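fyi for ur records
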Amino acid sequence: MAKYMHIAVVRSEIIRVLIEEARGPDSPIDPSKFLELTDLLLAVYHFELHKRLEAMKRDYAPFNPDLDSVVIGDRNQSELTRATKQLSESVRSVLKRGNYHCLDQAEILRAFTEKSLFPVKVKVNLNSFSEFLVYARGESIRQETLVTWFGLWKKKVEVPAYDRVCLYIHCKQEADIPIKMRRRLKVDHQPGMIMLKLFRNIPKHDLEMLFPSYEVLMRTIDKLMLGIPALAAGVPVVTKLGPALLALGVAMGVAEGRATQASLVTGLTGMVMLGAYLFTQWTRFQFQKVLFMKVLSENLYFRNLDNNEGVLTRLVDDAEEEECKEALLAYYFLLRHGGKLDSVALDREVEQWLRDQFNVDTDFDVDDALSKLSDLGLGLAKKDSVWMATPLDQAIAGLHRRWDDCFRTHEELGLTDPG
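which gave:
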């Protein structure tokens, strides 16, 4: 059973089971009050993260390759630089809150050199990017079906995979990118664009196929499969090449009146055969390349979850889910144990509960969860790592004040509807 760094259970299921337990005869928790607290907590996180999403969309607008709005407002270079920095920091923060972890450069480059699951060889040009980030969440062993020998042979293999992979790619300005790469990235109308990609179930050794700046290359085995038949087919052509060249010389003699027209026909025939052979080999290579591209596109089609601005929305949703689950679980188990529990025992309690209820092995980040309780006013740290839960009535009142503060802040910014 895989061990998850995030809580791999949907929020609604966790809330349902917590409320059911709170309704039990031996529960010290008032279920109606806990449900009210849950609704308030969800509303606060949703509103606060929605504000973060709107800010990210505003910063992303000048770099969004899919933007269909005509007017986004002029920004000078310093404002664009500031927007880029703010967007990068916000994306990192939201990914962290959603329990994604950043892959370092060594991990990414190592994945580029590993043997691919798919029958393609891809070379990535990282020089086209001024910044790129790769974040992953959840690791598991998955079964994949390999199809070889033109579909005649299939086998199942187990491969380590990331459950989610997010790419943040900031392209260089148009002048810094080769013309061939510009056409592929379509940056002719969008210099310095930022691409966001979200994928699922990606083999750890196949990260290179997620990047847009790839070049499909022939593997050694594919070169042999094309080259050996080509060599065999080329032997008769080569045997005729000598006479063809000789006939070509004769043809030149015809022009000077030193050879017959029959010799010219022989020479031209040999040249046509040679040209046909070379064209056949080139066509085979192009056909094989199309097959490779088909494999890539089919796999990415079913593994792609979202692109560009849509990724921002999904990441904020992920962050909201994880934040709520962590805070609710930590607060619930503090309440269940009389309002006091040390961090080590709380960590153990939550992980065991998730295992018993959902058969999910989770590495619960208890320090992060307790930090959320402190920020929300739902818990207070005592000495010796012991935490005390805020009583339900007091916690509900505190969340009501925080909810009201959200709108007061909005009014101060002049963002509310005057109607």
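The radius of gyration is 31 Å. thats all i got for now
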